[in-house]
Amino acid sequence: MPNHVTPGLVCAHHHLYSSIARGMPAPPATPDSFISVLENIWWRLDAALDLDMIYWSAALGAAEALSSGTTCIIDHHESPLAIEGSLSTIAKACRDVGVRVNASYGVTDRWTNDGEMLSQVDPQSTMTHSARRGLDECLSFIKSGGRGMVGVHAAFTCSDETLAEAAALSESLGVGVHIHVAEGPDDIHAGERLQHLAKDNWLLIHGVHLQSQLAGRLVHNPRSNMNNSVGYAYPATKPNTILLGTDGIGANMMEEARLAYVRLRESDISQTPDTIAQWIDNAYEVFPEGLNDRVTWSYDHMDSPWHTAFTTSMNVESVEIDGERVYENGSITRMDISEIRAKAQEQSQRLFERLAS
Length: 357
What we know:
Elements: E1 5-6, E2 9-14, H1 34-47, H2 51-67, E3 70-77, H3 86-97, E4 100-107, H4 129-143, E5 150-154, H5 160-173, E6 177-181, H6 190-194, E7 203-206, E8 217-220, H7 222-227, E9 242-244, H8 253-267, H9 273-282, E10 294-297, H10 305-308, E11 316-321, E12 324-328, E13 331-332, H11 337-356
Parallel strand pairs: 2-3, 3-4, 4-5, 5-6, 6-7, 7-8, 8-9
Antiparallel strand pairs: 1-10, 10-11, 11-12, 12-13
């Protein structure tokens, strides 16, 4: 392969619904901890989503992914007031743009049957109606032919019953579980709660405060971890296979890789860019089709991690998926990028108005 051409890149953990969140109004209270970030920003936002917002946010995120050479997205979604049909809506948006997607709904018990939102869920409590609907959405999407996993928000917002049901459903469907694990100190007991459930095909997201060894691939999200001030995961010290994700902050995997490298190097001066290159390549275990995609870059040393780790000016010139040119000369080919941006902006305004009220 020419040294300016690469396979398609894989974002191993995304939240496509966050694409229209940029510029959102300030939260009602300034977050002073990880849990307050969730309560004041992300849990308010996902509760305001509807299917129109979900579609155009996913379309915008997919278009931006192509522009950075990412052809495969593993998405983790939550919209507690618009659960049914959410995964097929995301899949349709990605298909319309031309991006491959693996989608899951993040099951959680933090919404009680009375509509109250909890910060922490009693492990001994019973599964909520909302969690059951989330599992049903994963089941319906996958059984209808969608590519997906069984999503779980995090152990600390789920009962043991819900965690067990999610694990059992994933086993019956022959897919893994896609779950945030020990991202912040509030989820520090996730390892011990999941140890008897986790399988090698699970995606364990973050693992910053993980204290127990778990089966599964660990997805490192350096920019998000820094942004949320949750600490460093020291992924190179973990026995798991490491992948890279963005946790919803775009899908530019070369940028994420550069950030992952300097964060790694800060913690261990003996580390090299080859480690990060391996983390990028590990994602093809989950999305092997990406290896057949073709991304043409403006830079002539894309085959060298020692070049790409220190070069910030490389641009994508074209992207081919299954032999189809889906991105060229700064624009996607299947849809009008101007329409996507305009529609996404309309949905952003609707979202912001809901958040403001």
